[in-house]
Amino acid sequence: MAGGNFMAIPRYQLISFAHLEAVAASTNAMLAFVIFLSRRATPAGVVDDVVFYGLNVGVIGFVVALTAQLPGLYVLFVPIMGIALLIAVATHVVALGKAPG
Hints:
With 101 residues, the chain is mainly alpha-helical. The chain has three helices and no strands.
């Protein structure tokens, strides 16, 4: 590959891995915290699984599309990620409002 030369790594690969670190790690951490807080009011359900897999399939597909330079796949994977996050917001905002102090 780059043979130890950082400058030989293609820029698009660096961007895709920065997205993987920043977007995927922070979004999963924040989502896990919100789910943890809302569990005090409502138990876990299938919705949490849908959100988890939807978010991670979207992120992985987006990073693969960035790494492989396939911008046509963005329109497939970004909405999957976005819909998963919207489902999480819709289901856990109500639960967070009911959670004890």
